[in-house]
Amino acid sequence: MGQRANLLIVRNQSYTLYYSHWCAYTLPVSLFWGEQYAIRFIELQKRVDESGWLDDKWAEGGAVLDLERRVLLFYGGEDILYDVPLRNVLLGLMKNNWPGWEIRWAHEGIADLAAYVGYPTDKVLSVREASRHEVSLAPPEEKKWVDLVASVAFSEQELLIFPLEGELENFLTRGPRLLDGIEKSYGLSSLDLKEWSDRFPVGGFHIDVKGEKLQVWHAEPDPALTPRLKAVWPGWEIINQRNSYESQAACTYGRLQFQELNQPELLAQLKTMLLSEPASPVETLVRFAEKEEAAGKRVEINPDALQDQRYELPKQLKEELLIKAIMNMNKNLFHSLEGTRLQLRTITMDDAAEMLAYLSDGEVSRFIGWRLMHTMEDTRGHIGALLAREEAGTHLYAAVVLKATGAVIGNAMLFNMDDEAGHAEIGYVFDKGYWAQGYGTECVALVDNFAFGTLQLRKLYACVNPANLPSARILEKNGYTLDEVLSDGSLRYQKENGLIV
């Protein structure tokens, strides 16, 4: 009974090894908040010598905190261990609390940790018996039971997809014999997983029969998977894609579609995980032991099982760190939007000259709420004000860059964001030399897709000077409709998120 983990801190080209009996499931929460808190947490655990290394049977989590190279390598958790999309969002959030650090997931579990610090990996690998389970590529009895997805290219013309129930190991350790018993009638020419289950699969594999190639992806850490598969698939090319489920979709040329990812739902799940106060496993264990002893049974408890050392941050501090991490993640996503001809990126002081070219143009300025710029000093001050508002979390601003030349041709913005109501206002401004070429339409489409798809906002607004009919047409092309005429004569357009009911 336990959730065992090895934890390591690397200093001065050597490591210190720690052991925890209970932290594996809660490890992502303990590490999430940043370097200083992670160090305090790890140093509370039991310090051990090399005999304290766990093997892959017992190590349900673990972490290496390398203070010299600023690398955090870890695995563990209860939900994120099996849920790749949830894990990816968590890792993206963590980067904001670990500035300057490289955050890595240990795809091979304890073996990755051992290899990182130079400990022999064979000492942490247990002997595994070959699976004796009879397997079939038959679908599960109920659609919601899908665990895995197999895709098999029998030839260039014949590709079939099989939703499966069970463990990856049970299928793949059969080697090429797996192909002998395939009942093709179970296969589908295409598969949209959202029609089968809300639960994301935990793994999958693609077999190219003619090319003798096996590609596999997996959510759960699986030490030494590649050499084990090479042993039972002799002569075949084995490609371990780790947690890249997208690689399997690519192998099927889009005929396999995974569930659509809803970032706000994933964030809500992570908020619950990160801010909840888990029950003490020690108290649960003690109550169980007392109950057994009361029934006349003899109970012995491992002394390590009575230790659950946690470093608890104040709830308010955790909430502040989480809000800031989410805000920064959304900002980074906004600054990486890319379309056919345009891409968005962070505005910097180096953009002042290009921005001054259009912000000093009276014909441009009269249609937006920004004052007319006259000098580089004016423009740098303006950029500083934009960045300050963005830091406050209510505004997002981006430079709109023409991909073909790298030139900054305008700005895009999402502001007056009301998370509770799910509303925000969209804005854009372009250099006059780039008007009437479709750039505004493309830019608004990028921002809309981000606001509705990533942020899951319910409604967007845009205010237009009544004399600026081309801007109104840009909005109308993107599905906006006139909402009302404001008291100052401005036209307010609106667009609702058609994906939210």
Task: Pick out the low-confidence regions.
Answer: none
Order of strands, widest sheet: 14-15-16-17-18-20-19
Count of domain modules: 3
The 3D shape can be described as globular
Under CATH, the topology of the largest domain can be stated as: Aminopeptidase
Largest sheet: 7 strands, mixed
Q: Output the CATH class name of the largest domain.
A: Alpha Beta
CATH superfamily of the largest domain: Gcn5-related N-acetyltransferase (GNAT)
Helicity level, as a percent range? 25-40%
Mean pLDDT comes to 92
Query: How far apart are the first and last residues' alpha carbons, in Å?
Result: 45 Å
**CATH A-level architecture of the largest domain:** 3-Layer(aba) Sandwich
Q: What is the tally of helical segments? A: 16
Counting DSSP E segments of at least 2 residues, the number of strands comes to 20
| Structural class category | alpha/beta
- Tell me the strand percentage band: 15-25%
